Amino acid sequence: MSDPTSNPPLNASDKPVSLFQRIGERPFARLAEELYRNIDGDARIRRHFPEDLSATSEAVRDMREFLTQFFGGPGEYSARKGHPRLRARHMRFPIDQAARDAWLDNALRALETVVTSERLDEPTRHEIGAYLIRTSQFMINRE
Q1: Contacts of 87 by beta carbon, 8 Å cutoff, 6+ apart
Q2: How far is it, in rounded angstroms, from Cα 104 to Cα 129?
Q3: Contacts of 115 (CB under 8 A, 6+ apart)
Q4: What is the Cα–Cα distance from 102 to 4, expressed in whole angstroms?
Q5: 71-115, pLDDT tens digit by residue?
């Protein structure tokens, strides 16, 4: 049996089906909400985030739209904010290994909550989790 992460499913026109096409928007919305709910209670990094981290906040909207777009959904994030330029947008925040680890801990806990509540399969969990790990490491900008 082949690794499902290396051979994405194909649609009728033999084009790879994006993760967004497979699971829809709801899991990404839930992931953004859960992530910021977790961060809201995390003294290690809470001070680096806006006061409002509610489900209707700008922070949650940005994360939801970014994840949706990155995984193959509509380009609402770029239409509203321009190219993501993740590292450049976050350069003003001191992100060292400890901050990265705290953020990633919150993100992976949020992902596990969403995997359970949305009944996502293991290849989906792996694909999103691998992205979160890679990107969080890339965001480190301080020693």
Answers
A1: 138, 139, 141
A2: 9
A3: 124, 125
A4: 30
A5: 999 999 999 999 999 999 999 999 999 999 999 999 999 999 999
- Find tokens 């949305």 and name the residue: 118
Distance separating alpha carbons of residues 48 and 66, to the nearest angstrom: 19
What is the secondary structure of 92-123 as a DSSP string?
A: TS---HHHHHHHHHHHHHHHHHHHHHHT--HH
Domains of the chain: 21-138 (1.10.490.10)
Amino acid at 19: L
15-68: pLDDT as tens digits: 789 999 999 999 999 999 999 999 999 999 999 999 999 999 999 999 999 999
